Amino acid sequence: MHIDLSCACGQVTGRIENADPEKASLATCYCTDCQAFSEALGKADTALNDKGGTTIYQTLPSRLKLLSGRDQLKIMRVTEKQAYRWYAGCCDTPLVFTAPTPSVPILGVNVRNFREGAEAAYPPFAGALFKQEAWGEVDEKKASFPKLAFAALARAFGAKLRGEKGPHPLFGPNGEHPEPKLLTQEEREAVDRRLEARKTQAAA
After folding, report:
1. Distances (CA, A) of 55 to 61, 64, 80, 181
2. pLDDT per residue over 182-200, tens digit each?
3. 3-state helix/strand/coil string of the chain
4. Structure confidence at residue 156 as a pLDDT band (50, 70, 90)
5. What architecture is domain 3-198?
6. I need a labelling partner for 200 at 20 to 30 A (CA). Which of 79, 134, 159, 174 fits?
7. What is the average per-residue pLDDT within 94-109?
8. Which residue stretches belong to region Disordered (predicted)?
9. Which one is predicted more confidently, 155 or 79?
């Protein structure tokens, strides 16, 4: 079983291989940093749900195969000590997040990049994270961050035991990656103002 994905314009494409529901986690994150990433790219209307949430499919990086568009990959950091948030420079589509180093085997994909039929490979929905930062009342159950973190660590440990580590699909052989764009304080403040306006509008 696999899941195909692409950016909005189709230049960046990839595939989640071995997409067994037992080998992934699914949750919606409402944190302001995930919101800021999409808003900074001008894609909040398409990448977020109506309450400001990003639904994330989390799996091992080794299960992602990049098929095209490597030259279009870019990285943003919305705060200095944050995950790498990868996007397609061709159309500014928010794609995935990873740790800042390939040695930490974590990969989270915005499910809005998946093509039709991906739901068949989804694991059970774990719930919502940071519900207090949503743009209004969220009906989804609260997800357990410790449980999600433990599941990610268990997948990584299991893959290591099975020899599944493999090369990271986004970083180069020696950890090379595009130079991350860190939002300046002024840029982040502008993004936060726009997000606050969206939250106010959603509550109206």
Report:
1. 17, 18, 23, 23
2. 999 999 999 999 999 999 9
3. CCEEEECCCCCCEEEECCCCHHHCEEEEECCHHHHHHHHHCCCHHHHCCCCCCEEEEEECHHHEEEEECHHHEEEEECCCCCCEEEEECCCCEEEEEECCCCCCCCEEEEHHHECCCHHHHCCCEEEEECHHHCCCCCCCCECCHHHHHHHHHHHHHHHHHHCCCCCCCCCCCCCCCCCCEECCHHHHHHHHHHHHHHHHHHHC
4. confident
5. Beta Complex (2.170)
6. 79
7. 93
8. 164-186
9. 79
Q: Where are the domains of the chain?
A: 3-198
Rounded CA-CA distance 131/190 in Å is 23
Which token pair is 91?
């159309």
Angle of helix 32-40 relative to helix 185-203, nearest 10 degrees?
A: 100
Q: Can you tell me the mean pLDDT for 140-150? A: 88
- Strands 73-77 and 64-68, bridge-based pairing: unpaired
